[in-house]
Amino acid sequence: MLRKLALLLLMAIPVVSATEVVLVSDNAADHACAIGVANALNATIITTEWGTYDKNLVDEILALSPEKVIVIGGPVAVAENYTTALENVGIEVERVWGETRYETNANVTLRFQHQFRTAYGDNATVCVCHGLDNIALNETMEKIRDGHCLVLLTNGTNLTVEPERLQLKIHKIEVVENPICQFCNHSGIANMLMQRGFKVEVEKIPEDRVKLMLQHRIKTMEMKIKILKNSGVDTSELESKLSEVEELMNQNRYQDAYRIMVQLQGEQMAMVRLHLHPIGHGIAKGMGIKMEENVSCMNCQNINASKGNENVSHTYHQKYE
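User: That's the sequence. What structure does it adopt?
Assistant: Structure tokens below.
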């Protein structure tokens, strides 16, 4: 009797099945891209910590019974261990990525532009964010989740993909403005797009919200520096720079604080990559190390490249080796 009851209970539990799953790191730029892909494909999105392999997430993916897993981001951002584990049980894995977050955004946009066209029809909205501006990217994610837009990154000069080359009818372009980001060049990007005939709106994030998000980033950086220090890495320069950020915040010099915070983030990521990240493998979950994509310096070289007829504007950043 008990065995029959247990069988009936099992039959009553719905089996969740997802045709496709999108796996991405918590890097803001990659994650924004992945949300758009998941929406267009009606797929489930699974997020892993950058550079970290978590077997529990593999189990979570397998529970969805996907036919295919689409990985957004490179093998450092989303550890190659995931691909191996999934392919070993017969699941097809497609990784879409580039050497930088800009290339990843370009490649993802071009790879899925037909799906975006189906999802948006003749009323597509493009949201433009600076690739290093996590505040604007996090704000934009809500728009993407609502099916409001797809995201293109800018380095303050170019876009990852020229909108004219997309097989989409673009209704308007929203430039998401973080008012304390001095290097983002929002007005320059907006003017450039308007001169090319696009309907452009500038969506300014409220300053009080920006300040709260910056304060949160300071606390997160404190934690990351502590992890490095506990691992035997000399973090004196990072600590000094973080103290400078906090002092600037106390002086209400938010633009200067944010500029240095972005530089600090790049230096911290480079230090993690140099000292703690084993080549080809993600850090096992539970070691207390959470890393993000290699972020380059803000003085970068812009190279406009073309892949076939796609006309992708790639931005290659100097890497911390």
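Residues 35 and 145 are 6 Å apart (CA to CA).
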